[in-house]
Amino acid sequence: MPDLTHDATARTVDTPRGPLHYHEAGEGPPLLLLHGSGPGVSAWANYRGNLPVFAEHFRTLALDFPGFGKSYSPEGNPMPAALPAVVDFLDALGLGAVPVLGNSMGGNVAARLAATFPERVSRLVTIGGIGVPVFGAAPPEGIKLLVQFVEDPTHERLMAWMESMVFSTDILTEEFVELRWQAASDPAALADVRKLFNFGSLRAMGAGRTAQAVDAVDVLSRITAPTLITWGRDDRVTPLDGCLVAMRLIAQAELHVFHDCGHWAMIERKEEFESTVLGYLLRDVKQPERL
C-alpha cells in the first residue's frame, strides 16, 4: 500500500454549500469516517492512525465537517451544518448506502444520518457521543474544560482538556500535543469552534437537558441500521451511562466497552478498536474463496 501521508490522501470535492475536504485511502466498498469536535480536530487528527488498517479492506473516506480541518466555514454553528454536508458529500461522490463510523460529534451526526436518511447507512458504528446521560452531570467535565480553552486558548488549558479525553496521559506525547496546539490555536479554527462551544452553549447544555433528551430519544428510536455502539469505560466527555438508552432504543444495537479508555477509543485502544470494528463491518463483505 502506498504511503498514507496527509498530503497523499488529501482530496477536495465541490458541493452546493461549499468545498469539502477529506482523506481517501484503499479500494473496495466505501467506508465513511466522521470525526469529533473540539479545538484542532479534523478527520486526519482523529483517524490518521486507523486509516491504513481500514484501507486494507475499504475505500476509506475521512471527511472534514464544515468549520473543521480544511472544509468550508459555515456561517453559524457547525453542528447543524454537519448533517447536510454529509449528504452533499455522499451525493458528490455518487455513493449509496455506506457503513458510517463516527466519533463523538461524528457519532451524533452519523446517528442522525441513519435516522433521517436510512437508505444512506448500511451499518452504523459510534464511539461515544450518542444516547442520553442517565446519571452523569451535564455538562460533563471534558466539555467544561474544552470551553475554558476555547474562551482563553493557552497551552496549559489545551493540556487540561486533552488529559480529560484519555484514561492514560502516556499517549499525549510532545509531538501529539504540539500538532493539536498548532491546529487549535489557528485564529480561523478558533473562530469556528467558538460558534459551537462557548460559555453560552455551556449554560444551554445544563438548562436544556430535558429537551435534548427528548430529541435524542426521537433520533435513536428511528435508527434501523445494524449498529455497533463503542465506548471508553472512563470517558469524561460523554460518560458511559449515555449508552443505556441507546441500547434500548436502537433496534439492532450491540455494545462494546473498552476498559482503561477515555473518549478517543480509536487512538487510546487502537488495535482493539480496529479489530472490534473490522469484525463488525466485515460481516457485510463477502470474503474471497480460498483454494
From TrEMBL:
<dbReference type="GO" id="GO:0016787">
    <property type="term" value="F:hydrolase activity"/>
</dbReference>
<dbReference type="InterPro" id="IPR029058">
    <property type="entry name" value="AB_hydrolase_fold"/>
</dbReference>
<keyword id="KW-0378">Hydrolase</keyword>
<dbReference type="InterPro" id="IPR000639">
    <property type="entry name" value="Epox_hydrolase-like"/>
</dbReference>
<dbReference type="InterPro" id="IPR000073">
    <property type="entry name" value="AB_hydrolase_1"/>
</dbReference>
<protein>
    <submittedName>
        <fullName>Alpha/beta fold hydrolase</fullName>
    </submittedName>
</protein>
<dbReference type="Pfam" id="PF00561">
    <property type="entry name" value="Abhydrolase_1"/>
</dbReference>
<dbReference type="InterPro" id="IPR050266">
    <property type="entry name" value="AB_hydrolase_sf"/>
</dbReference>
<feature type="region of interest" description="Disordered">
    <location>
        <begin position="1"/>
        <end position="24"/>
    </location>
</feature>
<feature type="domain" description="AB hydrolase-1">
    <location>
        <begin position="29"/>
        <end position="269"/>
    </location>
</feature>
